[in-house]
Amino acid sequence: MGKPTALILGCNYTQIPYVRAARGLGFRVVGVDRNPDAPGRAEVDAFYPVGYTDFEGLEKVVEKENLSAGDKIFTAAAHLAYEGAARLAELIGIPFPPVAAIDTGLDKTRFYALLGEQGIAVPSTQLFDERRSHILDPRQTYFLKSDYGKSPTYCYRIENGILPSLPKEYDAFFRRDFLLQEEVLGDHYRVNIYGDQAAIFLKLTDHAAVPLRILGPGHLHVLAKLRKVMRSLALTDWLVKFDLIVTEQHWYVIDLGLDPPMRLRQLCEYLGIDFPMAYARFYLLGERAALPAWVDICRPLLIEGSPEKGFVFTDLGEK
């Protein structure tokens, strides 16, 4: 028998370490990317200039490569890549969350409705209608978000009732509606749930975070609720990122993500752990213990920076 094939959606610079990890695990790697000159094309065994939202093009790749249920679909690209991955997995018969579940995680309208059904609070949110913009209270701060947008794509902060210029044409991030959401003042957290682990980061700013062992009072209750959401979306075998806002009285969920966690990866690599390889083992080999236990890697650190500018770590435990 030949090598199993891993079809990888996305071959940009940030995805190259995952491509190399897949090859290191013995897979024949087929890569797709809408950029015909994607830097990762030199790292794969076969490459196709097809975007991960080009469903027809992806199906042609599956047919040409003769992929079957014994092969793998993998992506370390943006959350939207999971739409194409789910469609291909369904076509081939590879275990994967259903297309409808992936869509619910992407579509804020459906996702917020699901949270409401499960008794999880969301900041006050309504469909936005520019013809009724007078409903904005100039004393209130809002966020205006497109239905399929992932921050910062089509996410606007509105103060004093002044509206931004919104896109006039639909695209992958704006498909039907904008949603108007009231700002909630509280502490922002990123919670990464994988297997029986929950990696928690207190987000001080968009570019600074601190790892924490627990969320605080009600920690286990909150995790139980988040895991229930994962079960309803058939995501229990996946790494899922939740964005939370916690106040003195309540906690709110504002988003869900499936793409690789930036902060967790940076922490692992600071500690000398090959995160892309562990992530590839987690997904491609089903090794649920490949990603490290949170109790083993949570450190009193300040993590500052961005993928573009690099990261700086400050040990807060130093005397």
Please characterize this protein's 3D structure.
The protein has 319 residues and is of the alpha+beta class. 27% of the residues lie in helices and 26% in strands. It has helices at residues 16-24, 55-65, 81-92, 99-106, 108-117, 219-232, 262-270, 275-284, 294-297, and strands at residues 5-9, 28-32, 46-48, 72-75, 125-127, 142-146, 155-158, 178-182, 187-194, 197-205, 208-212, 240-246, 251-257, 301-306, 310-315. A hairpin with a 3-residue loop joins strand 14 (301-306) and strand 15 (310-315). The model has no long low-confidence stretch (mean pLDDT 94).
Q: For the CA atoms, what is the radius of gyration?
A: 20 Å
* Strand count: 15
Question: How does the overall form come out from the CA principal axes?
Answer: globular
Question: What portion of residues is helical?
Answer: 25-40%
Q: What structural class should be given to the helix and strand makeup? A: alpha+beta
How many helices? The count is: 9
**What portion of residues belong to β-strands?**
25-35%
Our measurement of the CA-to-CA distance between the termini, rounded to an integer number of angstroms, reads 58 Å
Q: SSE order, as H and E?
A: EHEEHEHHHEEEEEEEHEEHHHEE
State mean pLDDT (0 to 100 scale): 94
Low-confidence stretches: none
Largest sheet properties:
7 strands, antiparallel
Strand order of the largest sheet: 13-12-9-10-11-14-15
